[in-house]
Amino acid sequence: MATDQIFLIVDDDSDDIELFREAIGEIDHRVVCQAAKDCGEALEKLRNVSDVLPDLIFLDLNMPGMDGRACLAELKKDARLKNIPVIIYTTSSHVRDKVDTLELGAAYFLTKANSFGKMR
Prior knowledge:
Helix content is 40%, strand content 19%. It has 120 residues and is α/β, with parallel strands linked by helices.
């Protein structure tokens, strides 16, 4: 039996988090979706976890306080966290955002769908 995968979504929009969880649940119910409402909470969770880290991090770019770019840079500086793939998951479709985040070490850049049907 395959072990469950853990995804961490970092987004200040609770509706986007719920849509993400629903879409993932329809794709694979074994995926555990954890959430953080901002980068500070995400970094605290990741740095304080004793052993099980997420398999993937979905990171929004535009958040109050520390934005997604700064958070990505912090993740990639941390020896324990730097190998977790980070997918930028944002409303932005700007080429510059994509280039910048890929250069910072993001594994992929994904523009958020504007409806649940398009997420699946």
